[in-house]
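In this section we walk through a basic example: taking a raw amino acid sequence and producing a predicted 3D structure, encoded as discrete structure tokens. The instruction is simple. Fold the sequence below.
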Amino acid sequence: MSSSQSLRIAERDEKEFDLPEEDLRHLASFDEIEVKRSGSGQPCVSVSNHVGVVGLPSGKLLEIRPKAPCNLLHYLAYIGDIDDELVRGTDASVLIDGSFVDLIAQLYLHEVDAVLKRGLNREYLVEESSEKHLRGQLDLQQQLQRQGVAPKKFECRYDELSTETRLNKILLDGLHRLRPLVTNSSVRSDVNRYYGRLQQYVSYERMSLRDIERVSLTRLNEYYGDALRLVKLIFEQAFVAELSGRNRRVQSLLIDMESTFERVVYRAVKTVVDTEYYDVRNDSIGYLTRSESEEGLLSMYPDFWIRNRTEDVVLVGDAKWKTGTDPSRNDFYQIAAYQAKHGTPGVLVYPDVDGAMRDTYTYATGSGTDAGRGKLRSIEIETGDGASYDQFVQTVEAAIRNNLPESLVKAEALL
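The resulting token sequence is shown next.
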């Protein structure tokens, strides 16, 4: 059961909430969230294209859900943010009544449990202590400062095999960051239980992404690999706000759905296109305009574009994480500019909304031509949650493959 302290809203939605001023100010501090007053004077919260959980100073949580039903874990596995082996065969759907953070927590707990069963990493660390008998080396400077001329103990420095390692501290900090964000009471209880188990062997210390990057996995500790990939995702997406005047932090974890969807589409295109003859890119295709002094203005960045061996651009495409019945005016304007740059066909890719966005368009001009552009197709790719991860991959790649010119696609992919 979800916590009664949890409030819900969908991405790109607007909703009235009765919240204290401190909570409203905290929400307004996020670039992804806007707080204003409705016509009735009630506080109204609107969010951009991010999903996840925002912790509030009052102790409540604001859950932001995906606009379109999807399995976000499949998305993150497909683009390499988490190991795909973690989600294969896992019933981990992100639905309107599910919590993405709870699912991440369950996966993370599974990996922490696997580490504990294998045994925590131990390393020799330098320890300092006062001992009745000499142990290791005598720290002469500390001996003189602390023990004086009539010493009763030795100030020693020695190597001790310890679980107080960077790896274990990272593992513990991952649980620490999840604790205030989990909404399901059963999952929260498990997170607290594993946090307590780890604290028996390692003390808490605030860690960072740099600490993760400094970790070197060997054959002796490679079993930490999956846990590290998950905790890196937690560290990358988590925001920590210090409450002024209080010795307390407020945690939040948000995922940008728009950029995640764009990366899914880009990887699918790279997978199905015949890269022996074509190059798939997502950097700039050039400037929209040039001044009289030949200075380029307004670089254009399609989400993907394809060029051939002679470096001619043969197709441009854009991914749009949005729902609706037709591409928007801005969607058309943007892709039209990309197509006109090199006179190519174009593709707009949307999440699955039951075929409402699937169509083929020809540009209408006064002279009845396409103004140098090729045709434009709008397509949809599967975002549903019911399929397994392998089925999800097959469906996404088939949707891209079937809507690209056959000449661009790998021969084996057409079989």
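Looking at the output, two observations stand out. The chain has three domains: 6-120+165-257, 123-162, 258-414. The first helix runs from residue 21 to 28. In the next section we compare this with other chains.
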